[in-house]
Every structure is written in structure tokens, then in C-alpha cells.
Description:
The protein is an alpha/beta fold. The protein contains 6 helices and 10 strands.
Amino acid sequence: xxxxxxxxxxxxxxxxxxGSIDLIVTSPPYNxxxxxxxxxxxxxxxxxxxxxxxxxWTLEIFKGFNKVLNKDGVVxxxxxYGTENTELMSLVIADIIRRSDFTLADIILWKKQTATPNxxxxxxxxxxxxxxxxxxxxxxxxxxxxNKKELSKRDSxxxxxxxxxxxxxxKNNDGSTELNKATFSTDFVRKLTNIxxxxxxxxYDPFMGTGTTAIACLIDKHKYIGSEISKEQCKYAExxxxxxxxxxxxx
Length: 251
């Protein structure tokens, strides 16, 4: 618990007990780097598979999710599309539904404070939102965990619940780093976990990067496990996490 493993997430999940994770929150590489770009986006990972290989790679990861995720847990999968590859995101989501044990329970729009500029394009829009795909197992669509409060009951006995809108507004990230140019913000993660994590949950991020999910977990008194193939990002994350972990031990 409360550790980032410097290894491939498939290896991490192979060593986890079945049903040991309550919630998965992550943002995978989007596979949208231009083929001849010298900017990889990450210090180690090269974001440039073929569409077919990327889809197969994703499905292998979802097999691991099916093993480690507890009953009625969900996967919060943040993805977006790129101007050079607008179709891959939709193809990935379709094949997760068609070829895995998971289905799509919801789609959340994340409105960021700043947008990716497309001002050199005469016909493509500037992307101010990204997507969080909420996956649950196909046999758990009626039971997966969501923290919606019951407000009242009708005379028929039907429950009426609060509105939680599928729209989150938060800043892009906690600060830039050359190690990973595709991070999200602690505020963003906390808004997601407030909806889908029960108290004292064990939360897994298979692409932990610079440790943002871990920090969000510590602030809200959840436990975390992370995987990250970059040794430098693991070191960077541990430095970020340390002050939050120290504060937690004081209580």
C-alpha cells in the first residue's frame, strides 16, 4: 500500500490479489504524438503505436483491471483525441466495450482552464474539454459504486437522488515538468474520487506518472498503489508525495 512500483502495470497487477482494488483512476498515454515529432511528451515512453497495437495493448491492461478490481468498482479512464489522430479514442472505447468484460457506464466532460491551441487550423476547433470514461463490468451496471445521496422517496417507494452532473471544471495540472507533459491536477482527481470512492478506498493508478493520484488519495485519506515505468518520474513523485504522507502520520 501507498507505494509506486517502478515497473509495467501488467507486472504490478499480476502480483495483486484478485479484487484488491476499490477504484482505478488513470490517464494513459493517448498515442497522439506526431510520427516524426522529437517531443515524445514523456521522458521515457514513446507515444506512437499503430492504432491496432494500441488497442491490443489497452485490452491487455483491461484484463488486468478485471482481475484486481473489487466487485462494483469502476475504472475512471481519462482520454482525449489529437488533431493528427481524431479516430483512435473512439476506436479504443468501442473495442473495450466489444472485447472486454467492461462496458461504458458514463462519460464525464473535464473542462480545463487552458486549451490546446489549434489556431493554425482553418477548420479544427480548439479543444477545451477532455473525457473521462466511466467503465464498470457488464454485469454490474445496476450496482457499481457511486456516492449519490438519496433525497427522498416517492409514494411508490422509488428513490429520488441528488444531481451530480457529468461535467467537471478544474485546472489542467499541478505544474509543468519536463518528465511528463501530460499530467492532470490533484483537484481533478479529488473531484472524481469524491463521486466514486467510498471512505478508506484502495485506489490504483496504472500510469502514476508524477504522483498526482497518490497526492489526491493522501489528502482524502485513501490508500494508493501506482505503477510507473519511468524511474525518474517515480523519484519525482516520491518527493512530491513526501510532505502529504508526513502530514497524514500526524493524525
